[in-house]
Design a protein that fits this description.
The chain is an alpha/beta fold. Helix content is 33%, strand content 22%. The protein has two domains: 5-82 and 200-271, HAD superfamily/HAD-like (Rossmann fold, 3-Layer(aba) Sandwich), CATH 3.40.50.1000; 87-196, Hypothetical Protein, Haloacid Dehalogenase-like Hydrolase, Chain: A, domain 2 (2-Layer Sandwich). GO terms for molecular function: magnesium ion binding; phosphatase activity.
Length: 273
């Protein structure tokens, strides 16, 4: 089978644990791209963050951001797909999450919204120190989140809850899922993310495939987490990283090496190059 689209998760997949893209990964991606294979970044992160890493790869890359809620090519203003949360839906999420002592952030394609100041070490806060001005993530604080929801009605793409209190995190995740109004998934063990019902990386890969006129048999998807399962199962070739948990590996067609040992490059070399 000739593969024409490779969809890559970022954290735990394309990026090492140090949040770097290895030279071997860059070389393999560039070689596949030069052969006419489309490379898509597929992440839970906001578009502006994913755009920075796509820029590092030095290729034209469509980006699936916010776990599938937003699709756009990095070098064009045209949005391929967007699915947002209404002010009413955001308030429903707030009604549940306000009962827990979590960090809760609401994301647009380029802005993070919080009711409290961002803590030292927060991913986007640290990232902003190292990126050009036009690629910085906007970090907005407003104690009155309901005011933000009204102001940004149908702009917010997802909410994310973060906590080291895993028992409370699990309970809150279950509480949101019981509403049956949202798609709820974890990208890391210390969080869960909330999107519009029906939104997932897998559904977004299908949108992108239809946009480019590709069949699922022509697609490779690689990931390591719960939020990658939908695209791994959708793809003609679903690949789990060596660092993925067993429940992800069991759903994959193939397991490559870890994110710290060039697992992305090794899979591309094997199946594409």
């Amino acid at each position: 089978m000739t593969f024409k689209l490779i969809c890559l998760d970022m954290d735990g997949t394309l990026l090492s644990d140090d949040k770097e893209v290895s030279d071997r990964n860059k070389s393999a991606i560039k070689a596949a791209h030069d052969r006419g294979v489309k490379i898509a970044i597929c992440t839970g992160r906001v578009f502006a963050s994913a755009k920075y890493y796509a820029h590092i790869l030095g290729i034209k890359a469509p980006i699936i951001a916010s776990n599938g809620a937003y699709i756009r090519e990095k070098d064009r203003d045209e949005v391929i797909y967007s699915s947002t949360l209404s002010a009413k839906e955001c308030k429903k999420i707030l009604e549940v999450t306000k009962n827990y002592d979590f960090k809760v952030y609401y994301n647009t394609f380029d802005t993070i919204i919080s009711s409290k100041p961002y803590p030292k070490g927060y991913t986007y806060l640290e990232m902003n120190n190292d990126v050009p001005e036009d690629m910085k993530i906007r970090l907005h604080v407003n104690a009155n989140l309901e005011e933000e929801f009204e102001k940004r009605n149908n702009e917010i793409l997802k909410a994310i809850c973060i906590s080291k209190d895993f028992d409370s995190l699990k309970k809150a995740k279950e509480d949101v899922m019981k509403l049956n109004d949202f798609e709820v998934v974890s990208s890391l063990g210390d969080n869960f993310e909330i999107m519009k019902k029906g939104i997932s990386k897998g559904s977004a890969v299908k949108v992108l495939a239809d946009f480019y006129g590709l069949s699922r048999d022509e697609i490779i998807c690689m990931g390591d987490g719960e939020n990658d399962l939908s695209m791994i199962e959708y793809a003609g070739l679903g690949i789990a990283m060596g660092n993925a948990p067993d429940y992800v590996k069991e759903k994959a067609n193939y397991v490559t090496d870890t994110n710290d040992k060039d697992g992305v490059a090794k899979a591309i070399e094997k199946f594409v190059l």
